[in-house]
Design brief:
Blueprint: H1 7-19, E1 31-35, E2 39-48, E3 51-59, E4 71-79, E5 85-90, H2 91-110, E6 117-122, H3 126-138, E7 141-147, H4 151-163, E8 167-170, E9 181-184, E10 203-206, H5 219-224, E11 226-229, H6 232-238, H7 240-247, E12 258-259, H8 260-265, E13 278-281, H9 286-301
Parallel strand pairs: 6-7, 6-9, 7-8, 9-10, 10-13, 11-12, 11-13
Antiparallel strand pairs: 1-2, 2-3, 3-4, 4-5
Helix pairs in contact: 1-2, 1-9, 2-3, 2-9
Length: 302
């Protein structure tokens, strides 16, 4: 897929969909059923303009121990008026492209340009690699500190980062105190770092969870930050990073500054609110899969 569409072009496709009038608040919710072995089967349909599509994704927590990917799936793109199948895509590869593209689109609006970024990256799986490559392609990155549960995985990702240009090493959660950008791409269910350490001019991107009881960031960060989401409705259903603090009686899901559509449309100040961290919480939505799948399909027709 990268040969047809890189993360920057995928981010452009997402922005174009939003500027074209697509309303993420009207996107159908993700449906989920449990499967044997603590797995989860997800169904994500969407329709917009001349196309429709649906992703069937599997989340199998036991797969890494079997030497298999944790995320599996397929994406079926359809002609909108006739619902004639057009192409079947690898759903996991599509997710690995569109999620960093969503983050890059948010980063364009929330992180002031003009200085190299010091980045802390949590995770060492496919999304961590995808986010690293997408951010390095989008912005000048001075350094990367990789924090992961697996020391070997962190070391391999840091070595890969060095091949892309930035200085890179393995790190610890305390490294967020010096970061311009913190990116969380993990399966964590509890906070990864102390939100009080995050600098007031830093951007935090959290993409690892779409469950209302799981989170990568803590209440302290949510309380301090200006919070941006893909959709208020989706965040209220699925963003544990916001829902858990709300359940604790702190600001949470109601503490949303704006959406990705607001940022793209220029309804919010460039660079976000000043004087506090900028937190972008992504849960992943079906309209994003559709926009990127359409861009891939149309690129292949040229």
């Amino acid at each position: 897929m990268a040969a047809l569409l890189g993360p920057a072009a995928a981010a452009d496709a997402l922005a174009a969909a939003l500027r074209g009038g697509l309303d993420p608040e009207a996107c159908p919710p993700r449906s989920s059923i449990g499967v044997p072995g603590d797995g989860e089967l997800l169904l994500m349909p969407a329709a917009s303009g001349a196309y429709a599509g649906v992703k069937i994704a599997g989340v199998a927590p036991g797969n890494p121990a079997r030497g298999l990917p944790r995320i599996t799936g397929s994406y079926l793109l359809l002609d909108g008026p006739t619902l004639r199948p057009l192409v079947l895509l690898d759903g996991a590869a599509l997710t690995a492209l569109r999620t960093p593209a969503v983050s890059v689109l948010a980063l364009r609006h929330l992180a002031p340009a003009g200085r190299p970024l010091r980045m802390v990256l949590f995770g060492s799986g496919p999304q961590a690699y995808g986010h690293l490559e997408a951010v390095v392609a989008e912005r000048e990155v001075e350094s990367v500190a990789v924090v992961a549960r697996s020391r070997g995985g962190a070391g391999r990702l840091a070595a890969h980062a060095r091949t892309l240009g930035p200085a890179a090493r393995t790190g610890t959660p305390a490294d967020v105190a010096d970061a311009d950008l913190v990116v969380c791409c993990t399966t964590a269910r509890v906070p990864l770092f102390d939100g009080r350490l995050v600098r007031p001019d830093a951007v935090v991107v959290a993409v690892g969870s779409h469950e209302p009881t799981a989170r990568e960031t803590d209440t302290a960060l949510v309380r301090r930050a200006a919070v941006y989401v893909e959709s208020r409705a989706a965040a209220l259903r699925e963003a544990g990073d916001l829902l858990v603090p709300e359940a604790e009686g702190a600001v949470g899901a109601g503490h949303i500054t704006g959406t990705l559509a607001d940022l793209v449309a220029g309804r919010l100040p460039a660079g976000g609110e000043r004087g506090c961290p900028q937190l972008f919480k992504s849960v992943g939505m079906a309209w994003e899969d559709l926009a990127v799948a359409v861009a891939l399909y149309e690129a292949a027709q040229i």
